Amino acid sequence: DAGVTQSPTHLIKTRGQQVTLRCSPKSGHDTVSWYQQALGQGPQFIFQYYEEEERQRGNFPDRFSGHQFPNYSSELNVNALLLGDSALYLCASSARDREGQPQHFGDGTRLSIL
Amino acid sequence: AQSVAQPEDQVNVAEGNPLTVKCTYSVSGNPYLFWYVQYPNRGLQFLLKYITGDNLVKGSYGFEAEFNKSQTSFHLKKPSALVSDSALYFCAVRPPFTGGGNKLTFGTGTQLKVEL
């Protein structure tokens, strides 16, 4: 049973560019959340998707957008990259009908902005 | 708004000794509380959770945590530490399900170092 998978594992971009990160949830999960973890910090919630719509959003600018596909996989898009966007981006999945169950995390995408 | 505080950036303990990693929280209503562990260059791995019921919850790898509502704390404990327990530990909180999502709020993390 595959867990949460994310791609790519590492990415290097320059300021002003755009990036797309991908996530496949754990089998049986229908909800995907994205978190940003800056160096030395705890993960910060970006947004959550289920039923192909953004349902909850953290304190991130509109440069951060996402999408969920019918197979529950998800993409995180970041436009006009800034140096401060350098971080580990974590995807987590869960099942809406299993209240209280923990979110399962992937190993993340390490994004470096030059 | 919900928040989590992990007052110690680092905890050092000798192998075989008990360990405690501290966490306090703030949330409206009865909290859902979680502990996760992160090894270098990896994602977060779930250890244990408190939803309701017994204040002492047991989780993976011999870890346990005690929920204290009056002190709004959820400290992580292990009776006998192993060198392999050395990692970064995160406490997280979320409010009960409201139909609007299950956003987790994390603390800043505590680096646990277990030495021989």
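qc> The mean pLDDT of chain A is 95.
qc> done
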